[in-house]
Design brief:
seven-stranded mixed β-sheet, six-stranded mixed β-sheet, 7 helices, 15 strands, EC 3.5.1.3, hydrolase, omega-amidase, 273 residues, Nitrilase/N-carbamoyl-D-aminoacid amidohydrolase, Nit1/2_C-N_Hydrolase, alpha/beta
């Protein structure tokens, strides 16, 4: 099946972001995409100072538009971090997924908050305004099961392993790495998660805006279960496409059967809830 990643240029005007995002979703559908993904923080600038101002309930304005365009195009739509979600007085970094009938299939709240300090380069603390999610998020398609993470979640190998154990063959991470961590770790982490779990891994970033307070790395990417980069964007706004070949995935798992060779008598990864 064809996967499309929309690397959107995000402005400070929410309505413009929503309209442009929906237009690109329609374009991707017209080119045969069955699963379409938007980037982290696609409807607002990324930054702790913006989260409260742009926050919405779910359902709300942004998710309603995503639901409508998913139904119109009859696709599976991964809504990036569609919005900072407000719920019961707390804010979450939340990704919503909609099916071809417009129904919500999953709502993933970012589990691992982006709190880092690289002296002289970047300091950021999502936990100043956001609360963490506490659950894994998997949704079914006629093609395969898909596991969801958001940006910093990709650094935690255990999460990807749990998704593999749950039968996922594609992991999608809307993300917004920066100019420090992007060139160092963005592709490396994707290839690691793909090879470790013999799955496809897709990451979808906002386009780079050098004038923004937080400058995203861009380079939305798809990696196959062999660890090969099979699609990759640059820094500009674009839509990239790739065909997810589940036959190839099955062949790789047969050739190198690590999933059946795990020493469960010696070690294991388990969920707590």
């Amino acid at each position: 099946f064809r996967l499309a990643l929309i690397q959107l240029h995000v402005s400070a005007v929410k309505s413009d972001n929503l309209q442009r995002a929906c237009g690109l979703v329609r374009e991707a559908s017209a080119k045969g995409a069955k699963v379409v993904a938007l980037p982290e923080c696609f409807n607002s600038p990324y930054g702790t100072q913006y989260f409260k101002e742009y926050a919405e309930k779910i359902p709300g304005e942004s998710t309603q538009m995503l639901s409508e365009v998913a139904k119109e195009c009859s696709i599976y739509l991964v809504g990036g971090r569609s919005i900072p979600e407000e719920d019961d007085g707390k804010l979450y970094n939340t990704c919503t997924v909609f099916g071809p009938d417009g129904a919500i299939l999953a709502k993933h709240r970012k589990v691992h908050l982006f709190d880092i300090n690289v002296p002289g380069k970047i300091q950021f603390k999502e936990s100043e305004t956001l609360s963490p999610g506490n659950s894994f998020s998997v949704f079914d398609t006629p093609y395969c099961k898909v596991g969801l993470g958001i940006c910093y979640d990709i650094r935690f190998a255990e999460m990807a392993q749990i998704y593999g154990q749950k039968g996922c063959q594609l992991l999608i991470y809307p993300g917004a790495f920066n100019l420090t961590t992007g060139p160092a770790h963005w592709e490396l982490l994707q290839r690691g998660r793909a090879v470790d779990n013999q799955v496809y891994v897709a990451t979808v970033s906002p386009a780079r805006d050098e004038k923004a307070s937080y400058v995203a790395w861009g380079h939305s990417t798809v990696v196959n279960p062999w660890g090969e980069v099979i699609a990759k964007a640059g820094a500009e706004e674009t839509v990239i496409y790739t065909d997810i070949d589940l036959k190839k995935l099955a062949e790789i798992r047969q050739q190198i059967p690590i999933l059946s060779q795990k020493r469960c008598d010696l070690y294991g990864i388990e969920t707590k809830k």
